[in-house]
Amino acid sequence: MTSNLFRFNYSDHVDLQYLYDYILNTIVSNYHVESEIATQELKQHLHLAYISYNHIINTNARSHNKFWIVDDKVFYFGSHNFYPTSLQQFGIIVDSIEASKILLESYWNPMWEYSAKYNFRMNND
């Protein structure tokens, strides 16, 4: 998920293909996983989308924080961007199934419901 400059957002637009390529290249180079294997795993487990604010203008469902969750039990919530920046960054990693469930139900699921499902074709397909 990333902010979309063209949807009432003030942050830098980050193309989802760029983000996917960055994640793939990091896995291949840092963890010495073959590109084909990493690609198959990402196809199965990685979901990227923009949050669309067009449908929720009259609600309080807005967010600029950065968030990721793994296996519905560990999550990060903070300000650190995926791209390099010289800003001071803060965040917290929480390892709790109970806290993750609360976060999913009260925060993430409502945001994801309004996400613009961006179905992009990866360059290496």
Structure description:
GO terms for molecular function: catalytic activity. It is a single chain. The chain has helices spanning 16-31, 35-45, 97-113; strands at 50-51, 66-70, 74-78, 91-95, 115-116. Helices cover 35% and strands 15% of the residues. The chain is of the alpha+beta class. The protein has a three-stranded antiparallel β-sheet, with helices on one face. A two-stranded antiparallel ribbon has the order 1-5. 5% of the residues are buried. The radius of gyration is 15 Å and the shape is globular.
Topology at a glance:
Elements: H1 16-31, H2 35-45, E1 50-51, E2 66-70, E3 74-78, E4 91-95, H3 97-113, E5 115-116
Antiparallel strand pairs: 1-5, 2-3, 3-4
Helix pairs in contact: 1-2
GO molecular function: catalytic activity
Domain PLD phosphodiesterase: 59-86
InterPro entries: PLipase_D/transphosphatidylase
Strand content: 15-25%
**How does the major sheet shape up?**
3 strands, antiparallel
Secondary-structure-based class equals alpha+beta
Query: Fraction of residues in helices?
Result: 25-40%
Shape: globular
User: What series of H and E elements makes up the topology?
Assistant: HHEEEEHE
